[in-house]
Amino acid sequence: MSGERVSHCSPGYVDHPALAHVVRRTPLLAFAAVQARIGRVSLKLENLQRTGSFKLRGAAYKLAGLSQDQRQRGVVAASAGNHGVGVALVGSRLGIATAVVVPETTPPVKRRNIESAGAEVVVDGATYDDAEAIARARASACGAVFVSPFDDDMIICGNGASLAAEIVDQDAGVSQVVCPVGGGGLISGLGMELAGRGIRVIGVQPENNCAMYESFERGRAVTVYRGQPTVAEGCEGPVAERTYRIARQHVDSIALVSEQAIRRAVAFCYRAAGIVVECTAAVALAGFMEGAVEPAATGSTVCILTGGNIEPDLLDEILATEGE
């Protein structure tokens, strides 16, 4: 396929018997304290997804679609953390041998979660780019299937398009969806499903690490990217030609937020609504709090909280240092 569109994103993508009910329908809720602070915005709580992240959706779609021969050869994934947990859990359910290569920046809690879900964890590489190169080489050497966290039609479909359909089903009046952006798998899938319905899609990235933003600015995909360190490690790294093309066609804009705003959003979520989110998941909410993104003038706005796998010590430190 061209990479511009994904067809037939059926909501029955986890119909395989081993995956029955593995992907949860997560709540979409409006919190009074949140709306008092940032306006008419509801939160899509993918932090409550099984594995604590939306990434399970794409993993379920991708691995369920593998042939028997591919399953026997096993899979190797590259991940900043949450994708790896999803691949590990689904691989375990389907009896597929799974290895996940993560960079050194991946928090220990995510490494432990991947291992607990049944995969071999390989910590190698200073950045996500490094880890992906290592994972691709390993898959090639052993004949396994490489599973990208974003540069894959099935991952895009499972993550973004399925989540978009669920949001529309929960809120028929939604006119704008805002989400964090890393490699672009989530936002490109959201864009494909929502743009045709007249629903705006806005992405938010840390100003320290913003390959999709820079891709939009340059008019081409930034497929090799280092950036600066960010507390939102899930947003680190490059985009793919595939995700950039789709996002360029269907996404309205990409906004940037500061590191301090991301930390404040994590603290605000916890204090205002009792919600535990990781820093990557708080990036979109930080966009509203810092004024980089505004609620829709008409209709409702949905802000996706993409995951809740934060290192406990980091959450404690953020709560201790970020004021009310």
Overview of the structural elements:
The protein is built from 13 helices and ten strands. With 324 residues, it is of the alpha/beta class. It folds into two domains: 17-54 and 153-321, 3-Layer(aba) Sandwich (Rossmann fold), CATH 3.40.50.1100; 56-147, Rossmann fold (3-Layer(aba) Sandwich). The strands form two sheets. It has a six-stranded mixed beta sheet, sandwiched between helices. A four-stranded parallel beta sheet has the order 5-4-3-6, sandwiched between helices. α11 (259-273) crosses α12 (283-289). It is globular and about 55 Å long. Residues 1-8 have low confidence and may be disordered.
Structural topology:
Layout (H helix, E strand, L loop, with lengths): L27 E2 L2 H7 L2 E5 L9 H10 L3 H6 L1 E4 L3 H13 L3 E5 L5 H9 L3 E4 L4 H15 L2 E3 L5 H18 L3 E7 L4 H10 L5 E7 L4 H8 L22 H10 L2 E5 L1 H15 L9 H7 L10 E6 L6 H10 L3
Parallel strand pairs: 2-10, 3-4, 3-6, 4-5, 7-8, 7-10, 8-9
Antiparallel strand pairs: 1-2
Helix pairs in contact: 2-4, 2-7, 4-5, 7-8, 8-10, 11-12
